[in-house]
Amino acid sequence: MIPVRGFEGRTVAVFGLARTGLAAARALVAGGAQVALWDERPEGRAAAQAEGLPLVDLTTADWTQFAALMLSPGVPLTHPEPHWTVTKAREFGVEIVGDMELFARAVNAAPEHKRPKIVAITGTNGKSTTTALIGHICASAGRDTRVGGNIGVGVLDLEDMHGGAVYVLEMSSYQLDLTTSLKPDVAILLNVSPDHLERHGGMEGYVAAKRRILLNQGKGDTAVIGVDDPWGQRICTEITAANRRTIVPISASKAMGRGVYALQGLLYDATGERAVEVADLLRARSLPGRHNWQNAAAAYSAARGLGISAEDAAEGLMSFPGLAHRMETVGQVGRVRFVNDSKATNTDAARQAMSSYPKFYWIAGGQPKTGGIDALADLFPKIEKAYLIGEASEAFGATLKGKATTVDCGTMEVAVAKAHADAAAKGQDAVVLLSPACASFDQFADFEARGEAFRAAVQGLTRPAAKGARA
Question: Is 243 a catalytic residue?
Answer without folding.
Answer: no
